[in-house]
Structures are given as structure tokens and as C-alpha cells.
What we know:
Strand order of the largest sheet: 2-1-3-4-5-6
Bound molecules: cobalamin
Strand content: 5-15%
CATH superfamily of the largest domain: tm_1862 like domain
Structural class: alpha/beta
Number of helices: 23
Oligomer: single chain
CATH class of the largest domain: Alpha Beta
CATH topology of the largest domain: pyruvate-formate lyase- activating enzyme
Amino acid sequence: MKILFVERDVEYIDPMNVMLLSALARQGGHATFLSILSADDLEADLERIKPDLVAFSAKTGEHTTYTRANEVVKRHEPRIFTIMGGPHPTFFPGLIQTHDFDAVGVGECDDAWRELLAALDAGRSIDAIPNIVTRGNSHKVLRARKKAPELVQIAGAAASARPEYDLEIDAEHLRPRKTVLDDLPFYDRELVYSKTHLRHFPLRSFMSSRGCPYQCTYCFEPKFNIMYAGKGPIYNRYSVKRLCAELRELIERWPTQFIKFYDDMFILDRKVDAWLEEFAEVYPREVGLPFFCLTRANVLTEENLAALKRAGLHSLTMSIEAGNEYVRNTIVKRHMKQEQIEKAYALCEREGIVTFANTILGIPVRKDVMEQQGKTPIDYDIESLDINIRCRVTYADFPVLHPYPGCELTEYAIKNGFFDGDFDKLFFSYQAESPFSCFDAKTALMQKNLSLLGPICVMFPHARWLRNLTVDVLMKLPLTKFYFFPWFLAKGYLNIFRVYPLKLSLPNFARNVWYSVTREWRKRSPDKLMYRKQVRLDRPTGQTLGGPPPQA
Ligand code: B12
């Protein structure tokens, strides 16, 4: 079969979902293609490739774009089989009943995808394939969502406008978690690199594990864990041998200077477990490139940091999320004391590890709590700026909270009347203005400005005057578009020279500056038309397999 993946855009992180699904498809003897909505003309690609199947992978916020793209596909040729998978349909599989997709993929779909393609190819029914929801099986495999009564009541209007929100998958139709990842093929990077700037961009992403046991209320993992309750261990990982084999093949084929491990939790244990011990020994020998990874401040110790350093760790993310103790521990459930965070950042500074912290602005606090604490909404964001300065974070990112389905924080926002529960209204990026109704225009402006000026203040932790000028004057001025440029310079410098140090040729550097400035501008401009249709056709993608997994 001919399979066409449709991606909204390709930025700097490898679309690992598409790369993996493409490799799985090619292993099964299918041909795969890629159409990128921000660069290609979808209708022309459909005409040229004549795909049998079109696949979309959707996060919430970009799902509306894929729904529109699906309409284009169905108008072009109704017989093309279309399927949407990824986090959005995982939480809303009911969209099979309200939208014109032929199937929806729920949860981890590696094996389901293989089975689906084989069944379609052979003309067999696909209704009994676990994790795949079709119009034929949806009445059997979906059930009414269990919701708190107050959520049904408050989100009533939004919920009745979107009946798909009321359904969830029955656990019976979900296969157990994938515990053995080593049998997966290497990512098909060729599919993406053969037609995008990533070919020449020497930062490569990889995930060595899946899953996270923590309860952070803004994240999808706790809901994912409930959905998968009783279906195998939460945290699953590639063996070190398999991981290094894939990375070795990657660096032999593509210019690579730095590896970004995107695992939710690269290390889970305060001790050096057997995996990390082996990784610290094998990775430097087999791969030998500096890398970045994510963990939590309460997990980092001198011992495990030493092992990561031995392996080649250059930079580390430990999200802070909020400066205020109540917001951090009661609303977002990070369960971390300020001293723990400061200690972990001090340890990194002492050991020469570059740090990157995510901190969410615009987390709504209930009125009665604000009154009790004598604070206004922006005070919490200022506390968040200050903790980053105190921790002397190298690169501090300040996104604005956006509610995603299934997250406890979203339920809290709906329950308190901050959000009506209509995810179709969400913009594709959380770098934009807060979608919550509880912030007045002045606060929303300050949040946006702080999101741009915050990283610059944190860059100069000793310049108290800069922090004061920002908080007392700059963040209150309607100059958001103007602040974008110093922010972009700071972010660009910190990313390319500090967090992910890369050596780029001058033309490559210039190309990427232009490319990223346009992307970042769009992310912060929800009112702008996102997709210009282009007449130019991109080159067809290569047909090289991502590479076989090594023999056991
Ligand atoms: C890497 C990553 C990114 C990359 C994505 C690069 C790319 N183009 O794909 C970047 C950094 C760009 C990114 C951006 C954002 N991300 Co992000 N990201 C992730 C992360 C860490 C890993 C995803 C991944 O690649 N996994 C590896 C692949 C192999 O697994 P997978 O994607 O889960 O795919 C499997 C299944 O989902 C399924 N599947 C997936 N697609 C499809 C398609 C079909 C047809 C089928 C059948 C199955 C299927 O099968 C796959 C194999 O099992 C996840 C967290 C996580 N742990 O998953 C968050 C996550 C996906 N991101 C999230 C969010 C919110 C965002 C942002 C909106 C935040 C923002 N900055 O504004 C933006 C979106 C911007 C945009 N729209 O472009 C949320 C999504 C929640 C939701 N309800 O949608 C997640 C789940 C994080 C979270 N903690 O909640 N992200």
C-alpha cells in the first residue's frame, strides 16, 4: 500500500511518531510518503502519490488542522482510508462518530498499526484490532466517559456541542503496554530528512523510554496511566545495546553533533540503577556525543549526576513549573520543596551542567485562595520568575498554561469556570495568550510580556535592576511584538550556543535563523493565517528503510 503521512509543520524536534510508524509500515512492505502542510500542497501530493491510506498524528490544538486536512483528502478521493492517532484521539476516540475518519488509533499503536496495515492490505476486517476504533466497532469498544458530576454540569454547553468528548475507550479494546521496545525498527528519518532542513541540522532527538509515574496535573501521563491500569509496567525502555545501535546508525548516516533525549524521565531513580550504569559505560564508547535529557529536581543526586556526566551529559531539564509553593504543590502537584529545586540547580552549576527549566505562567488560582494569600494573578508569575533567577537557570522557558484533555488541571479549570472545556478553540501552541476567562486583558498582556522578557532576566541573574525594570515597567506596556525580537535573540543564543551547542556553517546558521523566526512568530500569533498553500512540489521522499533492529 501507499501511505501518506500528513504533518502540520516540521520544526527542530524530529517527528518521532511519524518516523516510527513509517519504519513499521516499510517493514511490512508498504511505501511511505510525507506531506507537510506548511510547505507542500496537499491536494497536489494526493494527485501525485495517489495514496491508499492517509495518516495523521494529532496533539490537541493541531487536531482541528488535521480535521480540515482530512476533509481535503475525502473531497479529493473518498475511497482513501484515513486514520488519526496520537494524544488527541487517544482521549477523544469518539471523534470517529462525528468526523469523517475511517479509523482512530488509541494509545500506543506500534502493534495495532502493523496489524491494521496487514489487514487492509489483505482485505480483512479491521474491527477486531485492539487500539483501533472504527465506525463499525465504535458502539462496542467505546463507553460513556466517567466524569465528575460538576464537570458535566459546568462544561454542559461545550460537551453537548462536541458529543465525541463523552466517549472513551473500553479497557478491553486496549492491548497491554508495550514492554519490549527493542523489537521496534529504527526510526525512518529518511522520510523527514530527505525533504526538510533537518537533514543539515545536527541536533537529533530520540526517546529511550516511554512513561512516567508522576502526577503532574498539566500532563497527560497520569491519565494515560489510569487508562492503562493493570496493563503492564508504566515505565518501559530500550536496552542500552539497542539504543546505542540506533544512534550509531544515525550518526553514520546523518551529520550529528548532539543528541536530545526527549524521555519524560531519563532517570527515575536517585540511585544509579543497572541501566544507567551500563549507559554510562557503553554510550561514550559507542556514540560519544554530548547529550541533553530530562528529569526532576527531587530525583537528581550527586551520584546519578556523576554517572550522567561520565556518559557525556551536557545539559539537563528539571521543570520548575511554579515559584509559589501552593501553585506548585497543590495545583500542579509537583510535590517539590523550593530548597530541593535550588539544591539540584546548585549541584548542576557546581558540576558545570547547563540547565533548562520550564515554568508555566498563567496558572489560575481560585479567588478565595488569592484573597487569603493577599495576591493578584500576576504575583504568582513574578514568583515564578524569581525562583528561576535564584536557581540561576541557564535557559528559562515560560509558556502560558493551556488546558489539555484528560489532565487534572483542566478539570480544575472547568470546575472553577475558567475554561468551558471546548478544546476545538485551542491554538496549536501554548506560547500564545492564555485561553482562560479568569484573566483580564491587563493580566493577559503581562503574562505574554513576561513570557518573552523572563528568559532575558534569568540570563542575567545578578542584574536585579533588569528584573525590577521588567516587573515594574516593561511587562505592563503594550509592546509584546517589540519584545519578541530581544526574546528571539536570547533564546537563539542560549539554545545554539549553550543548551544544545552546535557548530553550523554560516549559510546553514542564517537559514535556520530565518526558519525559526517565522515559526516562533506564528506560535505567538493565533490571529495569523497559518498555512499558505504553496504550488511548488517538494521532492518525493527516498525509499530507504529506517534500518533493521539489531539481532538479539
Ligand atoms: C516530542 C514531543 C513534542 C515535539 C513534537 C515533534 C513532532 N513533530 O512530533 C515538540 C517539541 C515539537 C512538541 C510540541 C508540542 N507538544 Co509535545 N510532546 C512530545 C513528547 C515528549 C514525545 C512525543 C513522541 O514523539 N513520542 C515518541 C513516539 C514514538 O510516540 P507517540 O508520539 O506517543 O506515538 C505513539 C502513539 O501516540 C501512536 N500514534 C501517534 N501518532 C499516530 C498516528 C496514527 C495514524 C496512529 C495509528 C497512531 C499514532 O502510536 C505511536 C507509537 O506507539 C510528548 C510526551 C510523551 N511522553 O509522549 C509530548 C506531548 C505529545 N506534547 C504535548 C503538547 C501539549 C505539545 C504542545 C501543544 C505544547 C506547545 N509547545 O505548545 C506542542 C505542540 C506544538 C505543535 N502543535 O506543533 C502533549 C500533548 C497533549 C495532547 N492532548 O495533545 C504531550 C503528550 C505532553 C504532555 N505532557 O502532555 N512536542
